[in-house]
Amino acid sequence: MINDMTIASAERLWESSVSTERTIADDYLRQLGASQNVNSVRFNIACQPTNFARGRKFPAALFGFRNIRGDLLGVERHFLDPDTGEVLSRDYIGRSSFAYWFTARFDEPQGFPFVGTMCVTQGIERALELSNQTGCICGAVLDIPLLNDMTAPADIYEVCFDDENIESALLAKIMLAFRGRAYVTSTISERFSQEAPAVA
C-alpha cells in the first residue's frame, strides 16, 4: 500500500534541502568513495532524527530513492556529527517498495564503461563500492526481498546481483523473476571475475 502522506513528507524534505557542494555532506561522500557524478544526494543543515537523540537536530546527507521513472519515493537520511563528520545514525522516510537509489543517472553514463548493465545490492555504501569496482551504475534497495516485484530502467538489459549480501535461495528466486522479465542476469562474482577498471 502506498502511503502518500509519507511520500509527501519525503518530497517536502527533499525540496527544503540544498546541494552538498562545500558542505559536511560533500566530505562524507568523498569518504565513501563517491565519484563526481554521484546521483540524487542533497544536504539538510538541521534534520530531526526519529530513532535517536529526540528533540535535537543534526546535519544530514539525504539520498533520494526513486522508481524507474525517476519519481521520488523516499529519502534515506544519514545524520552526521557536526564536528567529526562521522555518521551517527540513519533513517528512511517514504515508500520502500519499488524504490532504488542509483549511483549515477542513466542519461549521464560518463565514466561507466558497462553501459546497459546495472548492479543491484542493499545499502548505499555497498552500492558505491560496487560501482567503483565494476564500472557499472549500481542500484541500492532498502530490502532485498522487495526486488521480486521490481524492474530495471529502460536502458538496462543486464542485471547483476550482489551475491555477497543476498542469501543464495533468495538470490536464485530473484534472478529467476528478472529472467522472466527478459533481463540477462548474473551475480557480481560471475560477471566480474576479473577486476574492472575503477571509475575515475
Automatic annotation (TrEMBL):
This is DUF7146 domain-containing protein. It comes from Erythrobacter ani. Pfam families: DUF7146 (PF23639). Residues 7-86 form the DUF7146 domain.
